[in-house]
Amino acid sequence: MPKLRILLTCLLLATIAGAHGEVGAQETSANVRLLAAARAGDTAGVTRALADGATPNARSRVGETALVIALKNDRTDLARQMLDAGTDVSLAAVNGITPLMAAAHGGHVEIVRMLLAKGAEVAAIDRLQKNAMTYAAGQGRTEIVQILLQTGVNPNAIYAHSLTALMWAAGYGQTDTVRSLLAAGARADLKDDRDKTALDIARDGNFSETIKVLETAMKSPAP
Fold this sequence. Notes:
CATH class of the largest domain: Mainly Alpha
Number of strands: 0
Number of domains: 3
Largest sheet: none
Low-confidence stretches: 10-14, 19-25
Shape: elongated
Mean pLDDT: 91
Radius of gyration: 24 Å
């Protein structure tokens, strides 16, 4: 009888372990399907994967969540779906890209507002030492720049290589963004680690309209 009890116990434990393994495999499969659906822009597929147990925080081999994937593909509908599902807004990919950076780069204003409302970290930086503000400024996402300034970002904050948001905007000829930053108090006389001002950087790119705006700013006394 003791041997029989031991045998039955072993069989029971094996059954339980097998069941747990099957559940784990199902969860893994659902996560894979979630990420694949996000890459394909398949909202129905995302819904099915979540219903089958996929975690909203599932990440690809490069650490991207379905939320980041959706934003990189300009699928704000999928991004909202993942936010509603509870994706952690602070999860960064292996390269450091956060949902807020992806949304700022893509110009997704409402998603930026949603991410900030959910506590997204504004100052997070990626492997290139860039953050949401530098991505927004360089891409000319003026409204997003203004939103980030409203959260308390200093218009004269110094980033990698002593670059400011104004310099990033000037370096890509984003004249409207340059104007907005100047209006918010950005200084045109600051210099990067090459001893160049935003005006010098704009001249390097031959951005004539941006140059005119910055020349006027340089003639004005610093605040």
